[in-house]
Fold:
Amino acid sequence: MIHEMLAVGALQCNCSVIGDEKTREAMVIDPGDDVEQVLELVRKHNLQVKQIVVTHAHIDHVGGAMKLRQATGAPILLNQNDYALLKMLDVQAAWIGMPTPGKVEIDHSIGHGDSVKAGSLSADVLHTPGHTEGSICLY
Ligand SMILES: [Zn+2]
Structure:
């Protein structure tokens, strides 16, 4: 398994790139910012991003998701209970004094019973509301 982690953006959110060494398929978890650096890791391992997984809709976790989708064509996955929070990205940006990343479109909601995949690698989605209504964990 390929697992690269880098701290992205002003709040240094941990973004993970997880890839299957055989199929070269990958998922990126929480691309909050610094998408060019994320893509450098993807290219370094010759990976194809198949899923963009967002654990919750705070700006430091989701801010770079659209740029990454544009670069890779991969769908963005987020639990639907955070869609309202996602609509407030401009407000979140103002709170921490950073430019707004613009509108982020979600391709699919993910929740309990779903799994996310990178080639033969798979993680179960656990809906764990608390930090936000739509927070998820991957097991
Ligand atoms: Zn948060």
Notes: The CA atoms of residues 33 and 64 lie 4 Å apart. The mean pLDDT is 97.
